[in-house]
Every structure is written in C-alpha cells, then in structure tokens.
Design a protein that fits this description.
The protein is mainly α and 254 residues long. It has helices at residues 36-44, 58-64, 75-84, 112-126, 139-156, 160-173, 181-192, 197-216, 230-249; strands at residues 2-3, 11-13, 31-34, 89-92, 98-100. It is 49% helix and 6% strand. Strands 1-4-3 form a 3-stranded mixed β-sheet. Strands 2-5 form a two-stranded parallel sheet. Helix 4 (112-126) runs antiparallel to helix 5 and helix 5 (139-156) runs antiparallel to helix 9 (230-249). The longest helix has 20 residues, at 197-216.
C-alpha cells in the first residue's frame, strides 16, 4: 500500500481552496518504507491515513475486505490496520492530495463519546482478526494509544476533566508513551485548554508580528507591521482552532 500519512502530508485547504498551513513531512523526504509490523504499530497510535491519498492493488483490498459500516466512524482506520497486517506500507512525503477543512465535515462533528464507542469496539475485535492474530503483543500499546487519542479529542473540544481522565489512563496503561512526541503534543493541547482563547490568539499575533519584523528588517519601502485588533484576534483564534483540527485529524479520521 502506498499512502500519504497524516493530514500534515496533504494540502489542507479552507472552503475557498486556500492553503491553511505549510506542508510538513513527518517521516522524512521522499519515499519511506515501513515493514508490516512497523506500519501496524504506527497506525495503532492513531488514524494517520488520508483516504484520498492511498494507492494499492485491487487484489489486496479484495483479500482483506473493504470498509465495515459497523465500525463507523473509525471504519477506515480499522481497514488500514487489516491491510498493514498483510502488506508493507510506503509513505510518500509529497503532498499529492488536498483535504478541505470546514465546519460540516465528519471530523468536525466528532465527540469523545462517538470516538470512544467506535474505537473501543474495533479494538475488542481487532486482534481476533486472522490478519492481526500475530500482533497480540501490541494489544497493550493499542489501548494506551487509544486513551491518548481520546485525550486529544477532549483537548480539542476543551473538555478539561475528560482530557485529564484519558491522559492519566493512557500513561497508566502504557508509561512508554512518554517516549513519543505525540504524547507531548497531546499534553500541550490539554494545557492550552487552561488558557482563554483570546490569550492564545494574542500570543499568536505577537509571534507573527515578531516574525514579520524580522523578515522585513533591512528592506525599504515595506509597510509597517500592525498589531491586529479585536476582529484580527478573533480570526487568529479561529486559525488556532484550524491548526488544532489538523492535529485531531492525525489521530482520528472518519
């Protein structure tokens, strides 16, 4: 199977088709080969596949079967795991797909409850699949990563207590998650729920202003860098939510 892992390896665009943030490869430039077990473990950490980026032989899809409606909203994640269990995966860093971000998307409507119900059901049955029977040793890691995903969803929805509950469960189930960057990104997302949105927007405004000043230093004829007002800060807060959406999509996508 050939894919572009993660929303960071696709062009994320808004409703008007404008890119929301720069392309950032996550596994290095070019093509990265993952053996089957490495791919399964990577995918157990969250649904990192952009559906429209995948290419595979028809025979592979017929071998494992397609989407299973009863697994919604995690039906794609469950299928990628079955495929990775019987096939190596090649990750391409080039952004060959575009993903439109809007308020009516399925991902935007995710709740902690819907993700928990779907992913818990998938994990209960996953290791009974004939393709994944040999990956039983990853069951504990799968549940730890599952709780971490729920913590990320809760952080995105600014549900502090729910975030704390699942973050604690994740680390109790799998203390080794502390060695993964995704865990610190999740904890950072949870910490942001303690800060009012307008403060986050102000911080982003200052950071952009400093970068703008540094970039224009020494160049004549450029207009001065302005500090955004209330409306500008509101837009930056919305941009911050969009960036959080990207992080959410790397963990859960339906």
């Amino acid at each position: 199977m050939v894919t572009a892992y993660d929303a960071a390896t696709a062009r994320m665009i808004d409703e008007a088709g404008v890119s929301l943030w720069p392309h950032r490869p996550i596994l290095g430039q070019g093509a990265t080969h993952q053996a089957s077990e490495a791919a399964v473990r990577y995918l157990l950490s969250g649904n990192a596949v952009v559906c429209s980026s995948v290419m595979m032989r028809r025979s592979l899809l017929e071998r494992v079967g397609g989407f299973r409606q009863e697994s919604m909203p995690g039906e794609d994640w469950e299928m990628w795991l079955r495929i990775a269990a019987v096939s190596d995966v090649v990750y391409l860093s080039a952004p060959l797909a575009r993903v439109r971000v809007h308020e009516e998307s399925l991902t935007a409507k995710f709740t902690v409850e819907s993700v928990e119900a779907s992913h818990t059901k998938i994990l209960r049955q996953l290791f009974d699949e004939k393709e994944l029977a040999s990956f039983e040793h990853l069951r504990g890691y799968a549940y730890g990563a599952h709780y971490r995903t729920l913590a990320r969803v809760a952080a995105h929805l600014r549900q502090r207590r729910v975030f704390a509950k699942y973050a604690a469960l994740a680390l109790r189930e799998q203390p080794g998650l502390l060695s993964e960057a995704c865990t610190y990104q999740t904890l950072y997302g949870g910490a942001k729920t303690l800060v009012p949105p307008f403060v986050l927007a102000a911080g982003r405004a200052v950071r952009r202003m400093v970068k703008g000043l540094a970039g224009r230093r020494g160049r004549a004829g450029e207009p001065p860098v302005s500090v955004p007002g209330a409306k500008g800060l509101g837009k930056l807060a919305k941009d911050d939510d969009a960036a959080a959406d990207q992080d959410l999509r790397s963990g859960v996508r339906g």
